[in-house]
Design a protein that fits this description.
There is one protein chain. By secondary structure, the chain is α/β, with parallel strands linked by helices. The chain contains 12 helices and 10 strands. The strands form 2 sheets. A 6-stranded parallel β-sheet has the order 4-3-1-2-9-10, sandwiched between helices. Strand 3, helix 4 and strand 4 form a beta-alpha-beta unit. Helix 3 crosses helix 4 and helix 5 packs across helix 11. About 50% of the residues are buried.
């Protein structure tokens, strides 16, 4: 392996802070790697925007991450993974992984009834990308989607264990009651933050699939296949994590403290439209 390449960071991006759940899993499963994270705080949310707009935003961010010398890109956003992954794979000479495919594969492998529930943004659900991947793995699978936009706001307000979050979860997941759904994909990177609440409401017989966990596993495999795993310890005096945002760095830092098992000193604001 080219040692210099191995030392390069992994680029991770999201429309805002939700992708920090993916970064958390990456750090846990790949602790020897360096990371550059970008949160598009100025233009969040992506879930209500058109495919063309999300693709343009995603390619700008990929250009920025490439300028930071990353060795791979993780699209830690379900909406961007659903609509922009193929464009980024085509236009950038880097290994790229999104959060949709790993979650879909695990769900297809997990379900016994063949009926899977999907919760996420409207754009992610209406894109049909999860259904497309699921059909590839198991043609007999049925998918029922439910947009859950309020979950994002509740998480960002810190309402992790809160009666309001429980009540909203009951309303959203009522669409799955009295069905044979036995597996639910958490198709938004914010949702693992309230996984316990979702699990309680869904019931113990329903398996929740966390694409953040599955994406970290797939990233490790991807790096191994491309001979890009870092094999050297990171010096204690080196900052292994760098954070960038398009707006609201202080808000990002505050929410990051909820998401990550480490305290970050801050995030640097950049003008992403320059890329």
């Amino acid at each position: 392996m080219d040692t210099e390449m191995g030392r390069r960071p992994i680029g991770v991006f999201d429309s805002g802070v939700g992708g920090l759940t993916v970064l958390k899993e990456l750090i846990r499963q790949l602790p020897n790697e360096r990371y550059v994270y970008f949160g598009d705080m100025a233009r969040t949310p992506y879930g209500t925007k058109s495919k063309q707009t999300v693709t343009r935003f995603s390619k700008q961010i990929a250009s920025f991450l490439q300028s930071q010398g990353v060795k791979a890109i993780v699209i830690a956003c379900n909406t961007a993974s659903a609509v922009a992954l193929e464009d980024i794979e085509r236009d950038f000479d880097l290994p790229v992984i999104g959060v949709v495919k790993p979650g879909a594969k695990t769900a297809a492998d997990t379900t016994n009834s063949g009926h899977i529930g999907l919760i996420g943004t409207e754009a992610c659900i209406s894109s049909g990308i999860y259904e497309s991947y699921l059909q590839t793995y198991r043609p007999d699978v049925r998918l029922t989607g439910r947009a859950c936009p309020l979950f994002v706001s509740l998480v960002e307000e810190g309402c992790i264990e809160d009666p309001v979050t429980t009540e909203i979860a009951r309303r959203y997941l009522s669409a799955f009651k009295d069905t044979d759904i036995d597996t639910i994909i958490m198709g938004c990177t914010h949702f693992p933050m309230i996984e316990d609440t979702i699990q309680r409401v869904a019931g113990e017989n329903v398996r929740l699939v966390n694409p953040a966990y599955e994406t970290a596993k797939e990233t490790k495999i991807l790096l191994k296949e491309n001979d890009l795993l870092n094999t050297e310890d990171i010096p204690l005096d080196e900052e292994a994590y760098r954070f960038y945002v398009s707006d609201a760095p202080e808000r990002f830092r505050r929410i990051a403290d909820l998401f990550l098992p480490l305290s970050i000193s801050g995030a640097k604001q950049i003008h992403i439209e320059d890329y």
